[in-house]
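can u do me a favor
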C-alpha cells in the first residue's frame, strides 16, 4: 500500500539530477525509501525507491541558535505544468555541532517533506530517526540519516489523508552536503511550512519498542479524528 503510493509518484517524475557527489556550490541531497512493512511484493516492484537527487541543499541558523537544513529538487518540464515535478525537505536539528560531528536523535515533525508531480501531491513527516552531521571545510555540513516517516496523499475530495496513526509509514535514508545559504534554506522552509500540517501533528502515534526504553514514557490511546480543516490545493509555485 505505502509502496504503491510512492511508486506511482516516482514513475511520473521527468528529468534526473546529477550524481550526489557532484554537489558543486549549491549542495546536494539523496533520499531512498522503503515501506515500513509489506503485505505483498508485486512483479518487478523495486524493493527500494530512490528520489531524484536534489541539486540544491543549504543550511542556516535562526535567531534562537537552531540549525536547519533544507533541500530542493525540481525537474525541467518538457510539456508544460502537468509534467512539472519536484520535492522539498527540511530538517530542524537543534544546536550546531561544537566539534567535528554531532548525532541528532530525531523525533516527530523535525523533518517535513513535500512532493509534487503534475496533479499528484504527496508529503511526509518524521516519527523517529537518527542523523549524524559532520563539519566540512568551506562552511559546509555533511549529513547521513535514517528516519521513519508517516506519509499522506492529497485529493480534492478529502484533502491530505489518511490522518494520524492511520498514515502509512516509510523508512527513509540518505545523505546530503549542505552549503551556507540562508535565503535558499528559508525559502524552502517557507514553501513547506505554509501547508496545514495539523492532521499530522495533533494525533499521537505509537512508535516501536526501543531496545533501551526510557523510564516514564508512555503513549496515550488514540482514535482517528476527522479533519476540520478545509482542503487546500498545494501551490506548485512554492516548489
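np, heres the sequence
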Amino acid at each position: 500500500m505505502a509502496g504503491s503510493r510512492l511508486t506511482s509518484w516516482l514513475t511520473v517524475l521527468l528529468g534526473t539530477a546529477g550524481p550526489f557527489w557532484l554537489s558543486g556550490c549549491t549542495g546536494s541531497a539523496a533520499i531512498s525509501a522503503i515501506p515500513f512493512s509489506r503485505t505483498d511484493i508485486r512483479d518487478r516492484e523495486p524493493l527500494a525507491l530512490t528520489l531524484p537527487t536534489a541539486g540544491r541543499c543549504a543550511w542556516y541558523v535562526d535567531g534562537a541558535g537552531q540549525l536547519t537544513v533544507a533541500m530542493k529538487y525540481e525537474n525541467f518540464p518538457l510539456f508544460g505544468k502537468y509534467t512539472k515535478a519536484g520535492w522539498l525537505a527540511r530538517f530542524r536539528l537543534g544546536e550546531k555541532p561544537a566539534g567535528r560531528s554531532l548525532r541528532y536523535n530525531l523525533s516527530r515533525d523535525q523533518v517535513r517533506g513535500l512532493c509534487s508531480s503534475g496533479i499528484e501531491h504527496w508529503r511526509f513527516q518524521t516519527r523517529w530517526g537518527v542523523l549524524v552531521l559532520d563539519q566540512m571545510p568551506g562552511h559546509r555540513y555533511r549529513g547521513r540519516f535514517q528516519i521513519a516517516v508517516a506519509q499522506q496523499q492529497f485529493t480534492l475530495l478529502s484533502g491530505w489523508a489518511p490522518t494520524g496513526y492511520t498514515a502509512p509509514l516509510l523508512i527513509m535514508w540518505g545523505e546530503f552536503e549542505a552549503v551556507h545559504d540562508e535565503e535558499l534554506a528559508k525559502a524552502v522552509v517557507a514553501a513547506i511550512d505554509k501547508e496545514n500540517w495539523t492532521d499530522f501533528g495533533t494525533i499521537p502515534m505509537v512508535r516501536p519498542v526501543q531496545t533501551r526504553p526510557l523510564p516514564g514514557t508512555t503513549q496515550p490511546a488514540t482514535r482517528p479524528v476527522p479533519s476540520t480543516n478545509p482542503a487546500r490545493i498545494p501551490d506548485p509555485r512554492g516548489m
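The radius of gyration is 18 Å. hope that helps!!
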